[in-house]
Each structure stands twice: as C-alpha cells, then as structure tokens.
Design the sequence.
C-alpha cells in the first residue's frame, strides 16, 4: 500500500460481494472522498474475498481494522462523513457477535477470524489483486527470485518435500514428490498446469484465491516450471469464473511487462510463460487426466493411470498438475522456509487448509485453518454454530466425493488421513453443515444426483452404477424402498468404488456409505415405517387434523387448492390423503393448531 | 527389454516388461473376460479405453481392482483373476450394463453373434438386480447402416475405428453420464455426417447397436416373383469368408458351394462380380496407360498418379475429405456397378427382356456397396443398375433360412457369359490385388510383350502403406497401396503436396481390403481370420487357368459384340462415372 495515504478503505471485490453491488459501493466511496477533497489522503482499494461472505459486502478500514459488514452503496456517504472525517465508527454497520450480542469493533476480535491462519489466503482482502506492485510489496515474486538466482531446481524440490505440502485438490499427493517425478521424467518439452476447474458444489476457495491474489499462483507456477524444467504453464479455468479470468489475465500481463514472465526472467536463463485455457464447467475436468484431454481439445473424460501426467500428460509430455490452493502455498514456503511451514499442522498433513463453509451454519464463508483444527472449532467457533439455534446433525466434507460426518466426529482433528479414516475425505475443502431438519437419505440422493449429471460416461460402473444408486435412493425417499435395497446400495457402492476408472467414480458412493453408516436408522424409518424423521420427504409426509383442536371454522377447507379437506361447519374436519398434495396451505390458515404433520 | 516375474492365480509367469495383465494371463492359459477391448494383431488396431471394467482383476496391495486389458505387469505383482471380490465386481458391472440394455435378444440382428449376450451367458446372469431407467434414442437408418443406439454399451470400438483408423470422424461420444452415447455430431443421422459407410464400425460393434440394413426379406419375395428375372453377382472376397458362417475353417474357399446355394435359393442366373472386375481392369488399366502415355509425351495437364475407384467407401471418403482432388481418381465405375450396367443392357438385350423386369442383386463383403447402388447416377429412368446389395452375412442368413445344408452342397460353376473370370479378378478381394491385376494387363499392353511371371509379390501383404516400383520394360512405374482410410489419407496428403512420384495408387477403405470388409462375417478381433482369407484369395488366383483380365474370352467377346474398345464412347457411358464435392452436402436438419 502506498504510504502517502493516511487511511485505506478496503472493499471486497470478490464475486459474492460484487453481486451485492460492492462495485457501486466502491464508486460512491470514491465520489464522496472527492467531494470532500480527501482523495489524496484516503485510498479506496478493491481487494479479493475476505471470506466472511455471510455478511458481505465487506469494507475494512485500515489502519484501525474496523470491519463493516453488509454495507450498501447508500452507506458510503455515512462512512466517509462519520468514520473518515469525524473519526467515529458507524455503529450500525459493525459486526455484532451473535452469542454475546455485543458489537465487535475490529476484525481481530471476531470469532470468525480468531482461529484462522491465512497462508494461501494471505493476500486476499489485503491487496488490490489488479496491481502487481501491491503483491510485490508483500514479498511477492521474492520466492521465484530466490529460487532461480540462489537455488538449484533440486534444492527447491527438496525444500518442497521437506515442507510436507500435499496437494489441496483432493487426493493429497505430496507436492514435492510430484515435482520431483515430473522433473525426472524424460521429455524435450514439459508443462506446468494449474487446475482451476473448481467444481465441488459450494466450494469457491480457488476462485477466491484467483480473484484476490492471482500473482501468488503465477509466481508458484514459475517456481514449479523452474524445478521440473518447463517453460510453459497452462491454467485450466472454468469459463464461469469471469472475474477470476479477468484478474488472472491482468496478473499475467503485468508479470510479462516487468519481465517476471517471459524469456530470461530476472536476467537468468530461465524462460517461463503462462497461457489460460477455458473449461466448460464439467466437474470431471477437475480430474487431471480429463482436464488434460479437455485442454487438448478432446472430450473431457478420464484416461487410465498409469501413465500419470508426470510421465505422459498434455500432448503426451511430462506435465505437472497442481491445484490453485496448492500453488498459493508455494511462495510462502520458499520465503519462510520449509521448517516454518512444517511446524504447522499435524504429523502427516502440514500447513493449513481452506474450507468453504456452507449450509446451516451462521458464518457462511471462506476460512483457512491449520491442519489439525477440529470440526467443532471450525463449525462452532469460526462458523458461529448452527443457524437459528438448531441442533447439529452432520457435516459433509469433500463435496460429492466425501462423506457425512456426525456428532461423534466433531472432535476429530481435520487432516487428510483422519477424514479418510472417518469415511469421508478432504476433497477440495467444501464443508456443508446440516441440522436436524435435514434428511440424510435426501442428502445422499442430492450428491448422487450431482455425480449422475457429472459422470463423463466412459466407464460402466460410474455411468450406470451411479444412476442405479440414485434410483434406489429415490424410491426410498418416496416410500417405495425395501430392506433389500440397503443390501443393493451396499454392494453397488462397494463395486463402483472398486471398479470405476477415475477418482470421480471411485469416490461417488461415499455419501451413500457414510450416511448408511451414520444414519442407518433414517433409512430404516423411510423403508419400514414410510416415515421421514426430518419431515423432508414429501411423499412420506401426512397432514392430519386433530379433532380435539379443530373447531370446524372451515378456513382450511376453503384454502385447500385441491379440495382435499371436508367437514361440517363447527365439527372436526378431515383430510382426504389421496387428494392431499402436501402444500401446507391448511397449516398456515389454521388458527387453532389443529393440523399437524405426521 | 527386461523380463519381469508376476504371479497370476498362484502361477508364476515371466513376461516382457510392458506386457498387460490380460496378455500375461493368456500366456499361461488364463482367459480373462473382456468386452470393450479389441486388438487386431498386425493391423495396428487397438481399442483399450478401459471403460467396460469387465476384465477387472485383483492386484494385491492395490486399493481398487485393475482392468487387466490396460494394466501393465510390474515386478512381483500378485494377481487374482477369479476370487469372490473379482467375480462379484464383474457380475455386478455386467448387470449394470445389461440394466441399460434392451433384452429383446430373440429378435436382435446380433443374436447368437453378440459379445454382450455371450458374456451374460457365461456369467450365468438369470436376473438383473439393478433395474431402472433405460436410455432410449432415435433409431437411425442410413442406406447402409442401422444405428440402434439403445443397444450401445459405450465400448467405443466404433469411435476408435471411425476416428483413429479411418480418420472419418463421423462418430464420437456425445452427452454426459447416463445419457452418453456414441453418435454423429449434434446427434444427427449418419446421412448428415461425413460417414463413408465403410462399415468398420459395424464390423467391430460387440452388440446390436450397429448393424447393416437387411434386405433378405425383399430378396425372398423377389425370388418367388415369376415376372422377374433375378440375376446375382458375387464379389471376390465373399467366397473366402462365407464358409465361416457355416462353421468352416477361416480361409476355406467356398466358391462352388456358394454358386450351388444361390441356385438353390432360386436365382435365375448366378454370375460373378469377378467378370466385372476383369472389365474394370480393361477400363482402369487403359485409363492408366492413357495417362502415362500422355505424360511421357510431355503433356503437363495429365493427372498422375491415377487412383483406383472400385472401393465405394474410398470414393465417399475423397468426395467428403478431398473435394479438391476429384479429377485424380480413375473414372471407372466399381465392378459392382459395371456388372449392373452390363447386365441391364448387354445381357437384358440378349434375354430380350426390359431392364425393369430384371433384378440385379449383388453379394458383397461391403456395406458401402448398399449406398453405392443407391447413387442416382447409377440408374436409368429411375431403375437402378443394381437393385439390391447384400452383405456376406445376409447371404448366410438367406441360406440358413432356406434350410439349405451348405456344407453338403456340391460345387458348381457360374453361368455364362457374365460368370467367367480370371485370377486377376479374384485378387481384387485383398489389399494390393486391384493394382496387381491392373499391372498384369497394363504391362502387356504397354510393352507389347507377354508377361511371364504374373505374381507381383512386392504388391502383396498387409502392411498399412506399401510402395513398389515395377519395371515396364525400362520405364519404372511407381505404385502405392494403402488399406484403411487413415492410411489412404496419408498417401493422399502426399499426392496433394504434389511430390509423391507415384504413377498409380490402390486404395481400399477396409483394413486388409475387401477380405476385412464391413459386410463380412465378424472377426471378433481375431486377425488370423483376415490372414486366412487373404491366403484363400491368392490360392484361388493361382488355381485359375487364365490370370490376366484381358485374356478373359467373354470380356473380349463383350468388347467385340457390344462395347467396341476400352474407353470408347459406349464404355464411357456405361462404365465410367464422375464425382461430387460432398464437403458442403452435410447439412443439419432442424
């Protein structure tokens, strides 16, 4: 940040806040500053995502760390007049702690940030992602400079191995080892590929990094290129991320302009440049072999491994594929050293992990915590607990490939291996929280619906098997299941995991298996009692009238859209179950609490 | 390459590095079931998407099961090919495939010859536990090929053939997940695609998803119609393969039995396409010589090399893919069409019947012939020169349906005059045969000398692209041969670049030539069958008394009585054709 200014207004320019008009807000702030002739003293900076998307748009004031939430363009004038000119915080825009019901004056004291450690997200919410100088001011490109001028590729690889960094895309393969394999693979041309085809429902960490700190990825790719002997980098990004694409393009162009990309970087003999490739949003293209096929112009579908991309990847050449978040960690590791990094986290999972909190949780947003943080800390401390004071039921991690973890897993320290042991997986870091109102059979069905849509169709177990899994779950939620269906689900899940060609199919039954494990009783209730314990499955719901409460006011009968309710005036009414469409109109109209759902 | 040791079902096996589990198992007599996998040895044709997952095996220490067809052995690997985990997985996966496949096997064109049906039988599938929605698609009827993709199991063999081997690009996987299927672009019909109807997709389809258009019922009805004179012609490669449909060893030549069977079926005249092949040589050979003579005289406008034009798949291919080179191929019609043309003029005149009362049926190893016969330019007043083209498989079907005991039939000869042929004609059925036949005749006409050694072995073989130079008494004639359209494309690119140096090129659309045609009995990935057919073809040539087309006495008589001379005006009218730019013909109907 430029030191000539006395104050900075950091406005979130992430996709979430943008869609709530943070760009208009920003213009207004600038306009009011100008009107008050403050434009040379106070700077408005567009930043990447702050993570606290629940309360966006966010405006943070530096140097005092005032954290304004849910700021609208109409609030701009007040912020300038009150805070900037008179030095008084705008109380109504400050964050209120939901537990203590107290106003929190700055971000440092917010529960959401207290337990976080931001490495991959270090610059998100701090710098203007469209200005390379701001990145450089925060040690940007120092790591690549250090690598190519002071270290041999093997030394960098050793440092990466020592750091213990594992791939953040889902499988958790050791990054240093991957680089080493690719560096040792013979090939006249090699490629560095950044996998930015983020596809897990609800996950948006890669997008936020690219929107908030694109240079960290550009720099890391250059470091990787130096290590493996590649002069070409490719970023495969889904076309649905226009803002990320725009900022990446700016970042690449700025880096090229000052010689941080291109030929003879920093006066060395190292050449490296980056191109962007667009994906059409197929989930399976996040799988590295499918991604490579798509980049080659082919149909996005997985191919058998081995050969791994490290040996034969893009155009048959050795290719190192890493995910965005993995890359974002690299410059920090080089700058601060592997020994600094490997002290964070658990024995086998080092560093931090970014999670996208979603579902029935108070603080929906993006967080980064050290590996080993417990689910309880994430959900109840950082996430602020369950919405509307409801009871926690499960948390789904790892997206469609993961599983549902329950109450008994809450004190589990999160890392790659613990999640797998518990029947789920890290995945890319999606975390969907469910409360007592969620039907777990329906949740499993939701994820299967997703994989059925997103399977590439190449291998039979994934193409047909997932469809059959979905159909069985569907009939259970409609009350047509049989107990034998549970055996079918178990066998089919096992076989799909055992025989599917790629990671998508090998993990797609996880939501079924983990809900069967943790919520077997719910399946049985659906099948044997034709009852959905959470009251979610429409076909299993039954609206009934309690004759003791019903006074025969006829309000329900008059409002029933299908004339399913009959009864004499001033006498208890009844609902014809065959006609009832379970719309709930009767319950809404009943003033006597006489209608209930069974 | 070093050897490695693996253990398969407790048997120690030593294999070369790079060997797949499937091949390693085969080497010790263990046959792992496969479905999508297809490998035509020595033809460079392999389909290995590892998609069906039927061949999965357990590799100790590995988290999941491994597809045997695509997993290479590594040192010390311990493999179980039939424990409970493997068997359950295979059976479940097969049930899944069957759960999205119609079970109308009784009336399916592939019944009894379907690889999926065979697997279901071998696995003892009696019920399908995983029932659910079945995908349904529009049936696609082209002039040659029927696509019933409800039966597609996404093995991708057709796609591999169409794209990698033939480089036609008509078929590829479309849609995603459960609805994915192999289809032309935008799920249009084949007739809107650059399909050449070579039928190689049909030749490899393991199920009934791709079959030929079946005309057997119309033939049965026509044979019973007393007002029609039904004439049949049989292509060279049919005799080398038909016996397989009746359990005979591949490579058994069944010419005489086939002629008897056709007579039993009630055809009025049983003729040989080989006669027309000799006629083709007269026309095409003369055209070649004409172009060479002009070239040697310094005519710079002459188009060389001349390309053969008897393969209709190949003709479709260059019309779609090389429309800028339509003047390069010979204008001679294919033997099928020359036969039809002569039958409905010369022979109909002899019989004193109208062409409308004559029905010409051809028995072809080919599916593109069905399309070729339907071309407008090959009909007069709406009456086609060839009325029906049946595949070798359809002929077998007719014979079986008529309860003719094929293997017990006596051998008999073709009828005259369109049944007489030379050894030069029969080798049309194998790659290199047409150009060898043309060489035999062109040599004698060009040099005025008698050719003593008629076997040009340098032109034979099954290498994908072959080149040879034949000495025409001091004039070196450079010849190129390609089979498979992908190989043809490579040669064509060289011709287009203008520096190929060839005088003549023979191209056959199907791997191996007509012996491997899309209408032949299915090889199910066994390339030894193709080699056996090839041998049968050359053996038949050797057994012939006359082995040069121009020495066929009935051909000489035909020119004397009817055509005049090769390339005469009448010949041009009846035996030559012209080509169309089809690049723009492909339109998407809304």
Sequence:
């Amino acid at each position: 940040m430029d030191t000539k200014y006395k104050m900075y207004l950091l406005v979130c320019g992430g996709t979430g806040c943008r869609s709530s008009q943070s760009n208009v807000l920003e213009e207004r702030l600038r306009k009011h500053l100008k009107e008050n002739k403050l434009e040379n003293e106070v700077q408005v900076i567009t930043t990447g995502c702050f993570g606290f998307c629940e309360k966006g748009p966010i405006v943070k004031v530096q140097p005092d760390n005032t954290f304004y939430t849910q700021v609208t363009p109409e609030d701009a004038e007040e912020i300038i007049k009150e805070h900037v000119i008179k030095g008084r915080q705008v109380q109504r825009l400050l964050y209120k702690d939901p537990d203590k019901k107290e106003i929190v004056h700055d971000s440092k004291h917010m529960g959401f940030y207290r337990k976080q450690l931001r490495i991959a997200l270090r610059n998100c919410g701090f710098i203007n992602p469209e200005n390379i100088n701001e990145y450089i001011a925060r040690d940007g490109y120092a790591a690549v400079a250090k690598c190519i001028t002071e270290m041999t590729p093997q030394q960098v690889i050793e440092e990466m191995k020592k750091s213990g960094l594992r791939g953040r895309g889902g499988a958790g393969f050791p990054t240093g080892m991957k680089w080493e394999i690719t560096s040792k693979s013979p090939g006249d041309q090699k490629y560095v590929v950044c996998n930015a085809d983020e596809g897990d429902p609800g996950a948006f960490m890669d997008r936020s990094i690219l929107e908030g700190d694109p240079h960290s990825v550009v720099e890391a790719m250059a470091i990787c290129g130096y290590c493996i002997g590649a002069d070409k980098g490719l970023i495969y990004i889904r076309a649905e991320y226009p803002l990320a694409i725009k900022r990446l393009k700016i970042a690449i162009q700025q880096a090229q302009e000052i010689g941080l990309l291109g030929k003879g970087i920093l006066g060395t003999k190292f050449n490296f440049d980056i191109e962007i490739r667009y994906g059409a949003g197929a989930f399976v293209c996040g799988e590295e072999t499918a991604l490579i096929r798509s980049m080659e112009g082919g149909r996005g579908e997985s191919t058998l491994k081995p050969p791994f991309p490290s040996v034969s990847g893009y155009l048959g050449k050795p290719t190192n594929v890493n995910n965005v978040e993995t890359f974002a960690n690299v410059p920090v590791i080089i700058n601060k050293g592997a020994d600094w990094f490997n002290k964070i986290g658990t024995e086998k999972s080092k560093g931090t992990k970014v999670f996208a909190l979603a579902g029935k949780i108070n603080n929906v947003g993006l967080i980064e915590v050290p590996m080993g943080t417990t689910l309880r800390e994430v959900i109840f401390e950082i996430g602020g607990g369950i919405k509307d004071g409801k009871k926690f039921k499960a948390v789904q991690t790892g997206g469609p490939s993961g599983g549902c973890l329950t109450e008994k897993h809450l004190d589990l320290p999160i890392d790659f291996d613990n999640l797998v042991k518990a029947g789920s997986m890290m995945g890319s870091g999606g975390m969907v929280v469910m409360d007592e109102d969620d039907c777990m059979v329906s949740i499993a069905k939701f994820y299967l619906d997703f994989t059925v849509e997103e399977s590439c169709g190449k291998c039979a177990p994934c193409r047909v098997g997932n469809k059959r899994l979905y159909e069985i779950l569907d009939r259970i939620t409609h009350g047509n299941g049989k107990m034998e269906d549970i055996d079918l689900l178990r066998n089919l899940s096992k076989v799909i995991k055992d025989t599917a060609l790629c990671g998508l199919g090998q993990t797609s039954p996880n939501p079924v298996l983990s809900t069967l494990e943790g919520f077997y009783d719910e399946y049985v209730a659906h099948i044997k009692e034709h009852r959905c314990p959470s009251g979610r499955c429409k076909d299993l719901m039954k609206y009934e009238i309690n004759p003791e409460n019903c006074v025969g006011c006829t309000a329900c009968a008059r409002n029933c859209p299908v004339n399913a309710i009959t009864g004499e005036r001033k006498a208890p009414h009844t609902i014809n179950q065959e006609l009832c469409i379970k719309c709930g109109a009767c319950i809404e109209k009943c003033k006597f609490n006489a209608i209930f759902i069974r | 390459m070093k050897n490695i040791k693996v253990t398969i079902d407790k048997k120690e096996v030593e294999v070369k590095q790079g060997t797949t589990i499937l091949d390693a198992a085969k080497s010790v007599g263990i046959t792992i079931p496969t479905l999508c996998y297809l490998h035509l040895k020595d033809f460079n044709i392999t389909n290995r998407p590892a998609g069906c997952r039927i061949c999965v095996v357990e590799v100790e220490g590995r988290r999941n099961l491994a597809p045997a067809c695509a997993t290479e052995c590594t040192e010390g690997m311990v493999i179980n090919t039939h424990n409970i985990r493997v068997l359950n997985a295979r059976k479940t996966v097969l049930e899944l495939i069957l759960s999205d496949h119609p079970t109308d096997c009784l009336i399916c064109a592939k019944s009894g010859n379907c690889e999926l049906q065979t697997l279901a039988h071998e696995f003892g599938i009696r019920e399908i536990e995983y029932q659910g929605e079945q995908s349904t698609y529009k049936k696609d009827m082209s002039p040659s090929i029927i696509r019933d993709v409800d039966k597609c199991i996404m093995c991708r063999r057709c796609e591999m053939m169409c794209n990698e081997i033939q480089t036609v690009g008509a078929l590829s996987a479309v849609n995603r997940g459960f609805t994915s299927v192999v289809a032309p672009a935008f799920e249009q019909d084949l007739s809107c695609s650059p399909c050449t109807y070579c039928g190689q997709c049909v030749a490899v389809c393991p199920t009934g998803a791709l079959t030929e258009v079946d005309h057997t019922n119309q033939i049965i009805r026509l044979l019973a119609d007393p007002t029609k004179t039904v004439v049949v012609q049989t292509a060279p490669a049919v005799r080398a393969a038909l016996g397989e449909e009746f359990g005979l060893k591949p490579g058994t030549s069944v010419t005489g039995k086939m002629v008897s069977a056709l007579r039993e079926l009630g055809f009025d005249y049983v003729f040989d396409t080989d006669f027309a092949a000799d006629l083709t040589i007269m026309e095409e050979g003369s055209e070649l010589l004409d172009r060479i003579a002009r070239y040697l005289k310094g005519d710079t406008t002459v188009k060389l090399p001349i390309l053969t034009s008897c393969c209709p798949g190949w003709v479709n291919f260059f019309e779609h893919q090389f429309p800028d080179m339509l003047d390069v191929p010979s204008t001679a019609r294919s033997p099928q069409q020359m036969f039809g043309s002569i039958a409905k003029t010369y022979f109909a005149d002899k019989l004193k019947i109208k062409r409308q009362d004559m029905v010409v049926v051809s028995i072809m190893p080919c599916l593109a012939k069905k399309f070729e016969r339907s071309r407008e330019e090959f009909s007069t007043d709406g009456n086609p020169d060839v009325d029906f083209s049946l595949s070798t498989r359809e002929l077998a079907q007719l014979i079986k349906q008529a309860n003719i005991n094929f293997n017990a039939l006596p051998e008999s000869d073709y009828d005259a005059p369109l049944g007489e042929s030379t050894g030069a004609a029969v080798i049309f059925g194998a790659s290199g045969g047409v150009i060898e036949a043309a060489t035999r005749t062109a040599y004698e006409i060009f040099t005025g000398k008698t050719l003593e050694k008629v076997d040009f072995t340098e032109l034979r073989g099954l290498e994908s692209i072959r080149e040879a130079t034949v000495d025409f008494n001091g004039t070196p004639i450079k010849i190129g041969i390609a089979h498979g359209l992908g190989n043809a494309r490579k040669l064509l690119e060289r011709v287009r670049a203008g520096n190929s140096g060839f005088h003549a090129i023979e191209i056959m659309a199907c791997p191996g030539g007509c012996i491997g045609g899309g209408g032949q009995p299915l090889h199910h990935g066994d390339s030894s069958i193709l080699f056996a057919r090839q041998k049968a073809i050359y053996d038949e040539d050797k057994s012939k008394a006359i082995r040069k087309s121009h020495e066929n006495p009935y051909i000489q008589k035909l020119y004397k009585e009817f055509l005049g001379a090769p390339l005469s005006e009448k010949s041009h009218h009846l035996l030559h054709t012209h080509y169309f730019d089809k690049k723009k013909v492909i339109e998407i109907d809304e």
Summary: Chain B touches chain A at residues 49-54, 56, 64-65, 67, 70-72, 85, 88-89, 92-93, 96-97, 99-100, 129-130, 132-133, 153-154, 156, 172-173, 175-180 (CB under 8 Å). Residues 98-213 of chain B form a domain with the Alpha-Beta Plaits fold (CATH 3.30.70.20).
